[in-house]
Every structure is written in structure tokens, then in C-alpha cells.
Write a structure and sequence with these properties.
The structure is a single chain. The protein is an alpha/beta fold. Strand 4 and strand 5 form a beta hairpin. Helix content is 48%, strand content 17%. Helix 7 packs across helix 8. The chain contains eight helices and seven strands; from the N terminus they run βαβααβββααβαβαα.
């Protein structure tokens, strides 16, 4: 029989509240918060900034070998995870609606999924982790002790995303974000 991992996996679509719930659960249990979405956003930012053709497996493979991602805890309970990409703080740069769409595209690339799944599993092997993101309970941590799937209507997800962006002082077009949510 396979051993159950001391991991809590929280899955669901964007804007449903995975990050908010995951941060709170991790903090209350003294667990590490693993923001898998931030990792995909960081990879997306790197591939985009280096103008890598997302249909060229060889270019993707060689570029992925150059990426080092480090996750940092947020400054307080409501802060997003900080992200260092090859030593550079890209925490703000990856938290835009456009980068969310880029992350969605790169997450569909098998080479990217393979690299990040391996990294996420390494981080989770120590246990005491709340992992948040799509496929965390089914693919990344299938032996997680606890698995939750959150969902909400698209309108609510878009409303939450707009509020989050405006709280950061960014402009947010609710109709555009709802259309992106429905894609």
C-alpha cells in the first residue's frame, strides 16, 4: 500500500478562492504554502520574455533548463506568494490577467507540466504542505492526505479577480475579465 502524504491539496479554477483558503489553512497549521499557479506564471513570464515559440519543444526544453524558481512567503496573511525567477523578484509582474492567460497556455505544454510537477513533488516530499492549484490532488499529489475542490460561478470568480486587482491599485475591466474567465 502506498503511503499517504502529509499534503493538503486544494484544486479548482482561477478566481475561486484557492489562494485565499490555502494561505489561511497553511498559516493556521504551520504548513508551507505551495502556490503552483505562481510557478506556472513565472515560467510563462520567462518563456514570453525570451520569445520562445510555444510549439518548439526543443526551444522549450533548453529554456526550461535555465529557469530557477524560488517561492517566498507573503509578508502577511493576505499577500500573494513572492516569486524569485533566477534571483529576480517577479512577484508583481506575474500577477496580471495577461500573465494568468500566458500561464494557462504554458500549463498545457507537457514539458512545462513535467518540470513543474517534479519540482512541486520535491517541495511536497517534506510534508506539511498546502498545495494550491489545478491538478494538485489528482496529478501532483495523488496520495495527499486531504483533497478539496473549490468552485464558483464565473461571475463570482471574475468579481473576485477584479476586486483583487483593484486592491493592488491596478485597473480592471470586469467585462474583459469575465470574458477571460469564460474562455
Amino acid at each position: 500500500m502506498t503511503e499517504v502524504q502529509a499534503v493538503i491539496a486544494i484544486d479548482g479554477p482561477s478566481g475561486v478562492g484557492k489562494s485565499t483558503i490555502s494561505r489561511k489553512v497553511a498559516r493556521s497549521l504551520g504548513f508551507t504554502y505551495l502556490d503552483t499557479g505562481a510557478m506556472y506564471r513565472a515560467v510563462g513570464l520567462f518563456l514570453q520574455s525570451h520569445r520562445v515559440d510555444l510549439t518548439d519543444d526543443q526551444a522549450i526544453r533548453s529554456t526550461l533548463a535555465k529557469i530557477h524558481i524560488q517561492l517566498l512567503p507573503g509578508k502577511n496573511e493576505d499577500d500573494d506568494t513572492g516569486v524569485l525567477l533566477n534571483g529576480e523578484d517577479v512577484s508583481d509582474a506575474i500577477r496580471t490577467p495577461d500573465m494568468a492567460m500566458v500561464a494557462s497556455k504554458v500549463s498545457a505544454i507537457p514539458l512545462v507540466r513535467e518540470k513543474l510537477t517534479t519540482l512541486q513533488r520535491q517541495l511536497g516530499n517534506t510534508g506539511g504542505v498546502v498545495a494550491e492549484g489545478r491538478d494538485t490532488g489528482t496529478v501532483v499529489f495523488p496520495r495527499a492526505r486531504y483533497k478539496f475542490f473549490l468552485d464558483a460561478r464565473p461571475e463570482e470568480r471574475a468579481r473576485r479577480r477584479v476586486r483583487q486587482l483593484r486592491m493592488r491599485g491596478e485597473a480592471a475591466d470586469g467585462r474583459k475579465i469575465l470574458a477571460m474567465t469564460l474562455e
